[in-house]
Amino acid sequence: MTMQHIGVIGAGTMGNGIAQVAAVAGLTVTMIDVSDAAVIRGLQTSDATHAQAIAFAQAIGKTPITAKNSPGFVVNRILVPMINEAMFVLQEGLSSAEDIDTGMKLGCNHPIGPLALADLIGLDTLLAVMNVFYDGFNDSKYRPAPLLKEMVAAGRLGRKSGRGFYSYQ
């Protein structure tokens, strides 16, 4: 049996790595990220395969979006730099963590502020994502905030460590 096409469900760090290895080996790859319902369309993804992936996501109750295979895809490409910018604002002393979060909740109708969300995601995870963006795009707009690097180095990773921008002890 010769395998020519694989499907990867879950386009996180591990799923993305599997897809990359398979694509380099010459296989056609279809990726579905069910966590944010993104259907990742690679260069060799046929229209029929794309349609099947969309139908599958809908069948499991997701509202899919389509994205090209690129670091961060759509949601994280927008979200993580926004969180990083909130860290720059805090670091520069423009506002407090509480006021940054309140401002974004009230002014942008976000259910949670960017710094509280950073604590929920994990500062180490955010630093890793920003480093992937910075390396992948070679663009200074994706440089991690020095405050983020400092907090990760100090073990302040957010909720998982009990302390990040807020204390959870």
Provide a brief overview of the structure.
The protein is α/β, with parallel strands linked by helices and 169 residues long.
Question: Would you give an account of this structure?
Answer:
The protein is of the alpha/beta class. The chain has helices spanning 13-24, 47-59, 75-91, 97-108, 114-121, 123-137, 146-153, and strands spanning 5-9, 28-33, 38-41, 65-68. α1 (13-24) links the parallel β1 (5-9) and β2 (28-33). The chain is elongated. The protein starts with a strand and ends in a 16-residue tail after the last helix.
Task: Please report the distance between the alpha carbons of the first and last residues.
Answer: 55 Å
CATH topology of the largest domain: N-(1-d-carboxylethyl)-l-norvaline Dehydrogenase, domain 2
| CATH class assignment of the largest domain | Mainly Alpha
**How would you state the average pLDDT, rounded?**
88
Query: Which term fits the overall shape?
Result: elongated
**Sequence of strands across the biggest β-sheet:** 1-2-3-4
* Helix content, binned percent: 40-55%
Largest sheet, described in full? Answer: 4 strands, mixed
Q: Please give the CATH architecture of the largest domain.
A: Orthogonal Bundle
Q: Proportion of β residues?
A: 5-15%
Instruction: Give the CATH superfamily of the largest domain.
Output: N-(1-d-carboxylethyl)-l-norvaline Dehydrogenase, domain 2
Count, helices: 7
In terms of quaternary structure, the protein is single chain
Number of domains: 2
N to C succession of SSEs: EHEEHEHHHHH
- Low-pLDDT residue spans: none
Which value, in Å, is the CA radius of gyration?
18 Å
